Amino acid sequence: MATRNVVLTERQEKLIDTLVKSGR
User: Fold this and answer.
1) d(CA 22, CA 24)
2) What is the rounded distance in angstroms from the CA atom of residue 8 to the CA atom of residue 23?
3) DSSP H helical segments within 1-24, as ranges?
4) For position 1, what pLDDT does the model report?
5) What pLDDT is recorded for position 9?
6) What's residue 8's pLDDT?
7) Alpha-carbon distance 16 to 1, whole Å?
8) How far apart (Å, rounded) are the C-alpha atoms in residues 3 and 22?
9) What gap in Å lies between CA 14 and CA 7, rounded to an integer?
10) Sign of the CA dihedral 10, 16, 18, 21?
């Protein structure tokens, strides 16, 4: 479960980064 959580967090971070770049 820990590994899955890490993967989800990484995916979310990538999505957030994309949103931030789009916002800029």
Assistant:
1) 5
2) 22
3) 2-23
4) 64
5) 92
6) 85
7) 22
8) 29
9) 11
10) negative
**pTM confidence score:** 0.51
1-24 residue pLDDT tens: 678 888 889 999 999 999 999 988
- Give the per-residue pLDDT at 2: 75
* CB crowding 7-23: b at 16 or more within 10 Å, else e: eeeeeeeeeeeeeeeee
**Tokens standing for 10?**
């990484």
The tokens describing 14, both together, are 């990538």
